[in-house]
Amino acid sequence: MFKVIQRSVGPASLSLLTFRVYASPKKDSPHKTSVKVNELSLYSVPEGQSKYLEEPRTPLEESISHLRRYCEPYTSWCQEMYSQTKPRMQSLVQWGLGSYEYLQNAPPGFFPRLRVIGFAGIVGLLLARGSKIKKLVYPPGFMGLAASLYYPQQAIVFVQVSGEKLYDWGLRGYIVVEDLWKNFQKPGNVKNSPGNK
């Protein structure tokens, strides 16, 4: 073994101080051969191949995995619906903010006109007692009539556009009914119908 002599400049508790270490062999010990670094047990390579073993899953992990697999279609559907409705909701919010700013800076006479149009809708609702069709037709009709008195240009444009759309819908409905009637009137269809067997 080697004899270690240590001299320090200050107390041992001060770790920042420098000190010198001198080593010398013992005089009475026989001379031994030096040991190589790779022969030390600290640096030796373990024998055999190492394997990675996966830990078994706990029941909690199994149940969470099952829950994730079960909920995956629903979460993907929700994400898809969110991505589809997000632009619509943003446009709705922008429309709401625009309407709010318009109402904050409304032109003079806007609120009295709005009151008259709303009152016309309430009158239409009161006159429509008893019939569901009247409840669907009278309030919007009275409100439209009152609005057309205050906004005649917009009412003319609205009537033209809605009249064209109603005509198109009526024409499509007529074509569908006509096709169904022709298919029903064919002699082969009447004989093969389930009621005539």
Summarize the topology:
Blueprint: E1 2-8, E2 19-25, H1 59-104, H2 110-127, H3 132-150, H4 152-185, H5 187-191
Antiparallel strand pairs: 1-2
Keywords for this entry:
197 residues; mainly alpha; 62% helix; 7% strand; disordered N terminus; MIC26/MIC27; transmembrane helix; mitochondrion; MIC26/MIC27_animal
Biggest sheet, strands in spatial order? 1-2
- The Cα radius of gyration reads 46 Å
Structural class: mainly alpha
pLDDT < 50 runs, ≥5 residues: 1-10
Q: What kind of sheet is the major sheet?
A: 2 strands, antiparallel
Keywords: Membrane, Mitochondrion, Mitochondrion inner membrane, Transmembrane, Transmembrane helix
Subunit structure: Component of the mitochondrial contact site and cristae organizing system (MICOS) complex.
Family: Belongs to the apolipoprotein O/MICOS complex subunit Mic27 family.
Function: Component of the MICOS complex, a large protein complex of the mitochondrial inner membrane that plays crucial roles in the maintenance of crista junctions, inner membrane architecture, and formation of contact sites to the outer membrane.
